[in-house]
Fold:
Amino acid sequence: MATAHSAALAAAPYPARATAVAVIAPPSGTGYADALARRGRDAVAVILGLSTRPPAHGDTLTQEAYTGVIEYTGNLRRTVKKLRAVGVEAVVAASPAGVELAERIAWQLRLPGSGMPDSVLLRTDRGVQAEALARAGIAVPRTLRTASLVEALAWADRHAASTYQLAPVAIGGTARPVECPTQQLIAAVWPQLQGAALRRSGKAALVLQERVEGRQYVIDTVTRPGPDGPQHAVTGIWAHAHAPTGLLDRIDLLHRRDLLARRLSLYVRSALDTLGVISGTTSCHVAFEPERGPVLLSAGVVTNRSRGDEAVWAITGHDPIDAALDGALCTSLRSRDTLRNCVTRIYVHTPRWDGSESAVLQALAALPTAVDLDRDPNSFVAGTVPLQPGGKAREIVLTHGLPEAIEKDYQRIRALVADLHKIRHP
Structure:
C-alpha cells in the first residue's frame, strides 16, 4: 500500500504553484504564514484543540497572517473536508506536535506527507526509532525506552557506560537531553525531565542511551516519492565542535564530496528507508565512531523555523517550504553544490543575561561575517544539545567566501563572551 501511494504521488505530484497550504499545529511566532505569503501562497492554520494538544503547546496568535484558521478537535474527517473546501494543495507540519496530524491529513488529501500515518512513531519517537534501526542492522546506541525510573536504573546497572544521555521520547520538543555520568544523576534529573516531557509532548516515557563517543554531525536531507520508491538527497552536512565544558560551541557546513560525507550520506539514506520517510525534509543527528562508523542518535521531520534557520536557508537555497511546494528532489538538484561560501553557526552559552549584555550583542551583530543573531534559538540543532544549568544560549550565523574571515570573527566572539564573563564574575 505504501509503495502504491508513493508511486501515485510520483506520477502526479501536486502543483508547483499551490495556492493554499495547510500549516499544522503552528506555535506562535514561527513565521510560516509570512514565509508562505512571500511565495504567493495562502496559509491555512490547523490549530490543535484543547483535548488534542500537549499542555504546553500554545495557541496560534490571531495577528499572524493566516488566511484561515481551522481548529482540530479530534474529528479528522471534518478537518479534511474543510481543508479540501479551501483548495489546500500542500501540507506542512509546523511543530513536532503537528507531525502525526500532518501525515494523516496529507494521506486523506492524497498529498505528499513525511510518511505513512500508521508508522509515524518511527519518525517522532527516539525509542521506537532506535529499536527499528537495530532490528534492521543499522548502528544505534544501546537504548531503553521507559516511563519507570526503577527500570531505567536497573538497565543502567546492567549496561555500564562512561556517560548516559537521558532525553524525552518525542523528537524536536523543547525539553532537551541531559547528560548523566552516574545513576545518581539519572535519578536526580528524572522527575524534572519527565514532567517537562509530559507537558510539552503529552508523553511521560523517556529514553536512556549510552553516550556515543566520536564527532557529531547533523545531516539535512530531502525526500521525494519516486516511481521505484522514495528518493533521498543530502542537502547539507554540519559538523559539531564542542567546548571543553562539553557544551556545543559551533557547527560548520561541510563540503559533500569527501569520503566521510559519502559514508554519512549512504548511512542516513538507509536509515531514512527504515524509518519510512517518503517525502519532505528530515534532519538526522549522527555520531561517527572510528570503529563503528556512523551511529544515528535521532532523526526528525523539519518543523522549526528559527531566525538562524531562515538565515542559513537563505544562504544555502534549501528551505523546507520550497521543498514542500516545488517538489523535494527538484529543489535539491537546482541548488546542489552551488554554494561557495563557508557557513558556521556559533553557540554562545552564558548565564541568564539581565540587560547589561546589550553592548555585547550589538558588537556580535556588527561582526563583518555575521548575518544573523538569534537570541532564542529553537533550531533542530539547538534542541538536540544540553544547556548550561540556569543558562541561556544565543546563536550567531557567520558566512564568508574565505574560511579565514570566519575564524577571525569566531575568535572575536569568544573574546567578547570572555569579557562578559569577567564583568559578571570579577
Remarks:
- The CA atoms of residues 92 and 334 lie 21 Å apart.
- Confidence is low (pLDDT under 50) at residues 1-18, 328-337.
